[in-house]
């Protein structure tokens, strides 16, 4: 049975929004490259208004603009939304004479706009915004004009492609290729942010997890099996976590945990209790873990927290106990193992 048109339309709208948000451009500050493009466009076409605009589900937002002093409008008041919905260039010689635009606030009042020409900007195969020019008088717009506007739009499009490429490179730089978990650098960045929040009373738990008897697996069965064990452990531990809780590969056979929020300590204990039961490998290989957990509920130094978690993990390993809990020195209450 074919999908209803409404369902397909909803799915397409969600895919478009996902492509827009993947750019990470909404609500960002001015950037010279977009400002320069917009200034050139407005000067070439001699229009008092123009913008590089992105359209989400409820508004149009200006990344760069000429003539406008505000940054956004409701979507229902947006001419650019028509361009995005059409997915192709749109020219309206007289906004007041077009039934789609005659009632818009920017036409009836405010800037009293009369002319619009826009070209869609794409990301992920979806129209997510426009490069457009507007005037306060009706205008003709030739095929040559449209071609030039499309060429200017390609400059903006190139900036968007570069932005996505840089974001992909950054993501690769913060990801462990074997387990696809955040890597040491990513974890350190997140921990630093969490420690700043802890200074305002936001509790956090740092955990350092080390695999037991991992070296003999590598030595006797080979690194391919060792890699499979690391991926298995990463998948099983990650399955225990909730959104907002972080597991990272810190290096070798060490993993780090970061839990934040008022229930961070409770969640840490839940994970610690469940973890040993989740690491029975289908192949029959047995791998144990030693886990050190450190709770901080006040100002904390990221490096000191990691060092204490490392010391606590080795206490667990030496004692043959899967988990040891301690509290950061600033916490007055003693731990309950």
UniProtKB/TrEMBL annotation:
Domain named GGDEF: which ranges? 202-329
| Alphabetized Pfam families for the sequence | GAF, GGDEF
| InterPro entries recorded | GAF (IPR003018), GAF-like_dom_sf (IPR029016), GGDEF_dom (IPR000160), Nucleotide_cyclase (IPR029787), Rev_trsase/Diguanyl_cyclase (IPR043128)
What Gene3D superfamilies does the annotation carry?
A: 3.30.450.40, 3.30.70.270
In terms of PANTHER family, this protein maps to: GAF DOMAIN-CONTAINING PROTEIN, SLR1143 PROTEIN
NCBIfam families from the entry?
GGDEF
- What's the name of the protein? GGDEF domain-containing protein
